[in-house]
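Before the break, one more example. Copy the sequence into your notebook; we will annotate it together after we see the structure.
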Amino acid sequence: MPFDFQPTFKGALVELRPLRPDDADDLFAVASDLLIWEQHLIRDRYKPDVFSTFFLESLTSRGALAVLDCKDGRIIGSSRFHAYNAQAREVEIGWTFLARSHWGRKYNREIKQLMLRHAFRFVKRVVFLIGSQNVRSQKAIEKLGSIRVGSRPDTAGRDSYVYEITSVPA
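Here is what the structure looks like once it is written out:
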């Protein structure tokens, strides 16, 4: 069975669905907060032209998901499946960002739990590639039980840590 990169999920807090072209304005409203990007490798995604490139890359990846708040249906972020390797039985989850109004609560945890639950229907290992300066994301993924297993350059040659998880956290 081939990996489904753009499923739809609904949890208690969030709904994840495939990212659509008409999500651009709503997602930019979230992404335009420069503090979201302060620890990311690409720190200027809050700028319209940089975000536009990121958004188009997200759409063409065919693995990007919009994250909606179940309370009001508003887009509060995005995440993505990437780099599925059927032979190694692994997939990457990344490019996640969330409105600051939803930080420090259970939203990111639920997003990742939903994505992990889906991924483990197809794979034995999920990988997260996180920039070495992105301590906030490193801590968030460690809270889920991910373990740092090494480092490698990302696709642009920037230093990143490799984390892995092999089961859905409780």
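The chain has a mean pLDDT of 93. The domain at 9-165 is CATH 3.40.630.30 (Aminopeptidase). Try to locate both features in your own notes.
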